[in-house]
Design goal:
Length: 501
């Protein structure tokens, strides 16, 4: 059981988000959060009885903000908002994304800047802790005014409407799931509907999850690249620290250091070192791997700074300030997150591209320096890994399309009141596909490089790369006649996803 994540006035970490979204971590409200929520609510209740209208408290929403809503219709106003805005369509969004979305909205509610009641915050925390996951659909967010449709689906579940999945992944009505968990459905009061849906929590959650995955995948890319260099009789000299100190990008230096270390002690590398080796330089896909992987690492590091700033933010409109003012603002615009989501798709595509080029070299008898064509057992009868590279190529082509930015697009909405939007949710959805594709591309390089290293016997690979081959051999057998390759690719993908590699 993971430790509880405490929500107070200090922002949660990226690790906290992952622990709640993917693990079994529960959420606890600190006393500081309870005090801040109660104080902000007092300001909203004061404004609710005021003659002068306040957006989100006593007015309509978006282009309908010009209408002043009488007191006896304000509860209906909030529930109607949530019902009408839960207008998503398409496939069901993954459980981890919805849990991240709910947790991050809860984080903002607990900040004391939204004006919701304490009982509403407690009910949302209870729903999350009970493992109740609202059904959120893939389409419906423009990434401005927040992730409106996805967050509305979560808010609707909190009121006991709509569909959810329980902790056992069973689909059932929200009212039934709440009742079975002993949670009273929330009857929304002034401003609460708006506060529950007006945030960038979905796209931020997907950014944090992608960053976690990419850190691991870039480590794997360094390893599979080193295996390919070794299998192709490449040199480790180009990964020396003094060469990379001449161009002091931190990610490049780290990737070079890792690749140099992975190749340390390799009999294969030593076998072609010396004056008898006539090769002057390796191909770019081998020699420049640290530059490409390192640039990707530095891009991830920048995206992490943006994610951390967003985790420290309280995104709502209007927002309750410490002096009691309730002010409209534009902090719900998803541009800061959308840009880095799009930015990350570029190095993901490029890391996959260079991995595919390394794989192709190992399969080409004219460039593989003594390996059999396509690493086949009986070339001609057997095709070896020929079509595995086709799969890589198809994925790399798809990744190039996914690298086209979503954030440069904007479609006006709400009768031109919301006339510029970020499309950050769309950028996040395509980045998730990109991350999955990169994992598969690296899995195919792993399979191919491991097979090539086996074929270099009796020469032994380095201890580190040999350990990687041994780990793979626990789930995929070594060289031999053609086998059904799809399950082996899937097994390698699972090995990478698990972190075991």
């Amino acid at each position: 059981m993971q430790r509880p994540v405490h929500l107070g006035t200090e922002p949660p970490s990226r690790n906290d988000v992952v622990a709640v979204a993917r693990g079994s971590a529960t959420v606890e409200l600190a006393d500081s959060a309870r005090g801040a929520v109660s104080a902000a609510r007092a300001h909203v209740e004061r404004l609710a009885t005021a003659v002068e209208p306040t957006y989100g408290v006593s007015t309509g929403f978006g282009a309908l903000a010009v209408r002043h809503i009488p007191p006896d219709r304000r509860a209906a106003l909030q529930q109607s908002l949530v019902r009408s805005h839960a207008a998503g369509a398409g496939d069901e969004v993954e459980r981890e994304v919805v849990r991240a979305l709910v947790f991050l909205r809860l984080k903002t509610l607990a900040s004391g800047h939204t004006g919701v009641r304490l009982e509403t915050v407690e009910a949302m925390a209870a729903m999350l802790n009970a493992g109740i996951t609202p059904i959120v659909h893939e389409y419906g967010s423009l990434g401005c005014s927040g992730d409106l449709a996805p967050l509305s689906a979560a808010a609707l579940a909190l009121t006991g409407e709509g569909l959810v999945r329980d902790a056992d992944n069973v689909l059932l009505p929200a009212a039934q799931a709440l009742a079975e968990a002993g949670i009273k459905p929330v009857a929304l009061a002034e401003k609460e509907g708006l506060a529950l849906i007006n945030g960038t929590d979905g796209m931020l959650g997907m950014l944090v999850l992608a960053l976690r995955d990419l850190r691991g995948l870039l480590d794997v890319a360094d390893l599979t690249a080193a295996m390919s260099v070794e299998a192709l009789l490449g040199t480790d000299k180009v990964f020396a620290a003094d060469l990379h100190a001449l161009r002091p990008h931190p990610g490049q230096g780290l990737s070079a250091q890792r690749m140099f270390g992975f190749l340390s002690g390799s009999e294969i590398v030593e076998s072609h070192r010396g004056p008898h080796c006539t090769r002057v330089q390796d191909a770019y896909s081998l020699r420049c791997s640290p530059q490409v992987h390192g640039a990707a690492r530095d891009t991830v590091a920048y995206a992490e700074t943006v994610a951390d700033r967003e985790l420290a933010a309280a995104v709502d409109n209007p927002v309750v300030l410490a002096d009691g003012r309730v002010e409209s603002n534009g902090n719900f615009h998803g541009a800061p997150i959308a840009y880095v989501l799009d930015f990350l798709a570029i190095p993901v595509a490029d890391v996959a591209s260079i991995a595919e080029r390394r794989t192709d070299r190992m399969l080409d008898v004219n460039r593989s320096h003594g390996l059999p064509p396509f690493l086949a057992d009986d070339p001609g009868v057997d095709s070896g890994h020929m079509i595995a590279q086709y799969t890589q190529a198809a994925l790399v082509s798809e990744l190039k399309r996914l690298a086209v930015p979503a954030s440069v697009d904007s479609i006006p909405s709400s009768a031109m009141q919301e006339d510029h939007v970020s499309m950050g949710w769309s950028a996040a959805r395509k980045l998730r596909k990109s991350v999955d594709a990169l994992r598969t591309v690296l899995a195919i390089e792993l399979l191919t490089a491991a097979r090539a290293l086996d074929l270099r016997a009796p020469l032994k690979p380095a201890p580190a790369t040999a350990a990687a081959v041994a780990k793979l051999r626990e789930v995929v057998p070594g060289p031999g006649p053609d086998r059904h390759l799809a399950p082996e690719i899937a097994a390698a993908v699972d090995l990478i996803r698990s972190g075991a590699l």
